[in-house]
Amino acid sequence: MDGKIFEMMQLQKQEKDVQMLISCNEKTETFGLALTPEDANELIIRKNNSLVKHKRVEFGEGMLPQLVFQFCDSQYINQEDYLETLTRLQDIFFLFKNESEDLLTDDELLNFMYEQFETICYGDLDYLEGTCLERFSKAVRAGYRGYHSTDGRNVYEEFSEENRWDKELYMEVLRELFWR
Prior knowledge:
mainly alpha; globular
């Protein structure tokens, strides 16, 4: 009897979560993105699998609506890969909540993820996971706390190892090439 009650509660929660995701379409449709009820249900199932995989528990609404709203205006996400991209982003999120030893709030992590996804990674989820977030979580574990004052924004350059494009240097080289 107790097992059936728990199953019914889980099913009700899943139905509520699906409806919550469907309601996100009101905002995301302006960016050409929408989840069908089947997609929303699949995303919830995948979220639950990811929670188990990363040994995490969510209470209340969870982070999925935040993730959807954070990434809905991305120039690198389109309707064709929307479900797969959200699935991967939520898995990366849970992984790096663990990797950062839960020192980051959901907002700090989501802000950092989005900013790097759009600017440094140019939509490359492998680079986001394997480079940007790996370095960031390593810095957080080592005691870095500069992200608190910016809510996770504008901090990657503090531990980036790549040399970035320098506009002034580029313009100088162009002047040299064309005005010799």
